[in-house]
Structures are given as structure tokens and as C-alpha cells.
């Protein structure tokens, strides 16, 4: 996500980066990890402003000053 800050990274791309060539079935694990990241970086993880869900596509990391 950091390497692609400001861009949408698909769920498939994130799963493949984390679990390798056959990432199918890891979507729930990915969502749990995203939640944990939000708990660490967001002031209010339930209303994220830095790690945004782009419905139907994936996630987008917004860094300060970008």
C-alpha cells in the first residue's frame, strides 16, 4: 500500500502480495489485517481517513501531504 499511496490497490493484488500466486480465499484474512492496520494508524478506525475502502475495488492509502 505504501508503494502505491494515492492509488487503488485491488484485493487480489494485496492477497497475491501477501500470500503468493494463488491468493484465492484469503479475502477475510485481508480484511482482518486491514482492520488491525487501521487500529494502529487511524484516530478513529471506524471512520478511516488514511486507509480507505474503495467499494468493489480494494483499498487506497492516503498519506499526509499527498
From TrEMBL:
CDD domains: trans_reg_C
Matching PROSITE patterns: OMPR_PHOB
Residue ranges flagged as DNA-binding region: 1-63
A Pfam family reported for this protein in Swiss-Prot or TrEMBL: Trans_reg_C
GO annotation terms (biological process): phosphorelay signal transduction system; regulation of DNA-templated transcription
DNA-binding as UniProt keyword: yes
Any GO molecular function: DNA binding
InterPro entries assigned: OmpR/PhoB-type_DNA-bd, Sig_transdc_resp-reg_C-effctor, WH-like_DNA-bd_sf
Positions of the OmpR/PhoB-type domain: 1-63
UniProt KW keywords: DNA-binding
Stretches assigned to coiled coil: none
Family annotation (Gene3D superfamilies): Winged helix-like DNA-binding domain superfamily/Winged helix DNA-binding domain
Protein name: Helix-turn-helix domain-containing protein
